[in-house]
């Protein structure tokens, strides 16, 4: 029976880390979804304040279904906030809304890593979904060119995950700084926001580590078949 030691050594630990990160972000969000801010403003209202403060008037704020489905679309200039964020007045809602607004501010300011991530999206999607399978097929059929193609495609996906890290961390730091400078939240409330955003950031770190470990596994498997 074939035993993939690289999967056990490299992939399994990162998958466990990803699971822990998902549990952390959900539990932290749930905890601070029960804490109301002194200013009874919703996530959508907080996003509006931050956009206006930064002189951004061409970004629309829209509700989107689901939970933790919040995102900023740079091509459409839309800030989509999930149901527990858009109309809720909680520390968690304001924190998530401010973070996503941070992406809109990055876009307006021409933040380099965000622009690079947007360029990588099409190829990253292809590389993530097809790259590993193409590489494994190359190993199975002993076709080095197919193996190298798969690794190359997946490398673009890995680059996307790595570039995502500074984009997400910067958006969170912008959010906290703007909330503080505009006295939207108190220092105690900002501490709660920081916990929510730190937990969310761990999911991106776990995803990046999983992608890097997967790429390293493919490279090691290719060398073992040489």
Task: Describe, in plain words, how this protein is organized in 3D.
Helices cover 74% and strands 6% of the residues. It is mainly alpha-helical and 226 residues long. Helix 2 (43-53) runs parallel beside helix 4 (91-109), helix 5 runs antiparallel to helix 6 (144-181) and helix 5 packs parallel to helix 7.
How would the blueprint of this fold be written?
Blueprint: H1 5-32, H2 43-53, E1 60-64, E2 71-73, E3 78-82, H3 83-86, H4 91-109, H5 112-140, H6 144-181, H7 187-224
Parallel strand pairs: 1-3
Antiparallel strand pairs: 2-3
Give the number of helices.
7
**Main sheet attributes: strand count, strand direction, barrel closure:** 3 strands, mixed
Distance between the termini: 20 Å
| Series of H and E elements | HHEEEHHHHH
- Strand order, largest beta sheet: 1-3-2
What is the β-strand count?
3
Helix content: over 70%
Rg, nearest Å:
20 Å
* Residue runs with pLDDT of under 50 for 5 or more positions: none
- Overall shape: it is elongated
Notable characteristics:
226 residues, three-stranded mixed sheet, single chain, 74% helix, mainly alpha
Summarize the structure.
This protein is mainly alpha-helical and 226 residues long. Helix content is 74%, strand content 6%.
């Amino acid at each position: 029976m074939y035993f993939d030691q690289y999967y056990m050594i490299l992939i399994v630990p990162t998958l466990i880390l990803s699971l822990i990160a998902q549990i952390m972000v959900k539990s932290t969000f749930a905890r601070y979804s029960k804490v109301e801010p002194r200013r009874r403003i919703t996530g959508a209202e907080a996003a509006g304040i931050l956009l206006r403060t930064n002189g951004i008037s061409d970004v629309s704020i829209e509700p989107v279904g689901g939970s933790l489905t919040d995102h900023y679309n740079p091509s459409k200039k839309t800030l989509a906030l999930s149901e527990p964020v858009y109309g809720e007045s909680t520390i968690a809602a304001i924190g998530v809304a401010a973070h996503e607004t941070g992406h809109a501010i990055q876009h307006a300011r021409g933040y380099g890593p965000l622009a690079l991530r947007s360029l990588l999206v099409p190829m990253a999607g292809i590389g993530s979904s097809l790259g590993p399978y193409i590489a494994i097929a190359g190993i199975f059929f002993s076709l080095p060119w197919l193996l190298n193609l798969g690794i190359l495609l997946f490398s673009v996906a890995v680059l996307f995950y790595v570039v995502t890290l500074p984009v997400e961390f910067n958006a969170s730091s912008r959010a906290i700084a703007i909330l503080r400078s505009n006295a939207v939240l108190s220092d105690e409330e900002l501490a709660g926001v920081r916990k929510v955003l730190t937990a969310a950031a761990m999911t991106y770190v776990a995803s990046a580590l999983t992608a890097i470990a997967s790429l390293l596994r493919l490279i090691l498997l290719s060398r073992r078949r040489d």
